Amino acid sequence: MSKSEKSRETEHSESRKLPIYQHKDKLVQAVKENTFLIVTGETGSGKTTQLPQYLFKAGLCRDGRIGVTQPRRVAAITVAQRVSHEMGVRLGEEVGYQVRFDDCSTKDTMIKYMTDGCLLREILADPSLSQYSIVVLDEAHERSLNTDVLLGLLKKTLSKRSRGRKPPFKVVVMSATLETEKLSSFYENCPVFTIPGRTYPVKEKFCNLIGPKDKDSSVYVKEVVKVTLDVHTNEAAGHILVFLTGQSEIEKACDLLFDKAEILDYRYDVHDRTVEGLLILPLYGSMPTDQQRQIFQPAPKGVRKCVVATNIAATSLTIDGIRYIVDSGFVKQLNHNSNVGLDILEVVPISKSEAQQRAGRAGRTSAGKCFRIYSKDFWDTCMPEYTIPEIQRTSLTSVILTLKCLGIHDVIRFPYLDCPEERFILTALKQLYQYDAIDRRGDVTRLGRLMVEFPLPPNLTRALLKAAALGCEDVMLPVAAMLSVENIFIRPGKPEGQKEAEIRHKEIAACAGSSNDFLLLLCVFEKCRSSDNPSAWCKEHWIHWRAVKSAFSVETQLREILLRLKQNDFPHETFEGSRSELLRQCLCLGYFTNVARRYIGKSFCTMDGHGSTVLIHPSSCLFGQELHLDWIIFHDVLVTSRVYVRTVCPIRYEWVQDLLPKLHEIDVYELSSVAREEVTDEEMAQWEKKEAAKRQAATEDAAKK
Ligand code: CDP
Ligand code: MG
Fold it and tell me: What ipTM is given for this predicted complex?
């Protein structure tokens, strides 16, 4: 028997030990008997990896594949790897995956793991999902925006279609124990299949290192490292799982841990002599695939694994042998910030239910311990009871456009599991109107149908389509690609590296005239691509080669979509001017909603009606040149004690002059009628009249003043 076959054999017998195995036949039966089924069970019971295999082996996908959605791309990839290995097939054949910008599946793939966003795109192309016999919506308790929309779509459109289909189309929703009753009543009171699991008690301890006032990431990273080392030196054997917020904090913590673990003297410092070393492993969403695999490899004898992860390790992925949890108490979350009027990736305290979920990871194989770096006071005053579903806290613009393109006009009374606030829906409609993706009736325009084809945020898509109409997509495709991958600039944690990196980054910025962060991205992309040895070039300039490499592949994929769209009737315009000007003007079409004008000193004031005061982030190549700038647009916002804008581009007022009125022209409440029902021509005419009168009154008012 070869080595890999042997490891497969052991894994195979391992999978028989999972709690789900005893319920195999009953589960298959339940899926056969029901159109909708909810499956619930403790994390690690085998739902994600085993159930699709059971259904496959029971012949349930003879007439179409099984699609399994995941809210997170790492989970989709690692789980597909695992399952293909267990089944002894090559990844990308019978078992495959698809995530944004990375498709590892063929038309013959029978079990396809994919992000929820990818399935949503497939529904756009084929509303009845004719290739599928079963869709499994996994991790439904996470309540990601796309999963929530899929829940509604499968209920609304597919339940009708599935009745007529032979064999009928089925939906399985998998979820941790929360939310199952709600899900069942949402799906016609369908049965809930519970996989009983065994868990061991977890002792919970507040370490009191973080109080209600500490929100700075440098504080909690340090404290997390301290507690982790304490656990390592004082506690008996067993792996450690550390919950942190994001890639940069994780890398920082791993660096610190590595330095400190190196100087430990195992003869004296470490209490349990059976652990001779600490294996530090980062785990986050955009991690390279080969590194992901390491997380699940058993540690060598006498070595303690320490996995430093984002929330992904809370439910999406199970790492065996975890006995200790170190919980930072924070999570990075996309929130709509109504003060600034933008979606912002913020570090916020986790909810109490999330904290319990994190702690539970320590009690899977034996009794465990959870060390919370924060205080009881922090728990009481800063942490909400439950996590609010994403659909109620982020921008709905892309989702509403998708629904509209699927012919769902009444986006307010769509069957949401939890309704978003009406004003968020209206804001999304307003933005779509501003990008010319829908018209005043709420109908999708030709541009809107083109926009929905791109797996990009609407503002970037709008800018890209403008450039494409001008025949100059070569300037915008790389920019869109670079903004779609993880951060490309290496910013080392140690002071020596920092200086050197800064100098190198300044050099490249100088090539781009140090005048525009978007142009700088284009510049890095092009320099790297034309270099004879791109990876060496990146190393020399402190650029993440891996990120640029994925940007190359993203650019190719976006270009393919564009080429396909250009074969049909595509808008065509002309432009005269320099390349930098062209880039900036195209960006204006997408980012005029993120426009700001210089205000007092180095600060800027946004123009979207919120009038927030913002500063240019030190990472921008325009940092320090504020006094020479007047109008700017920006890609995103970072909120600490101040509001910073990152990836900035100076513009001229004339370029946005005609667009800015769009920010105020349409009253969101007027849009509520178009969100609810089809508007007749007559109603439309009346409305136009009313709007015209309003504008007239406003102009007269202004004239009087
Ligand atoms: O979905 P659920 O949380 O119920 O469990 P699962 O993800 O199917 O995991 C079942 C088992 O497979 C766990 O013990 C994991 O540690 C293991 N697994 C693995 O070793 N490698 C992976 N890439 C995924 C899961
Ligand atoms: Mg799972």
Answer: 0.98
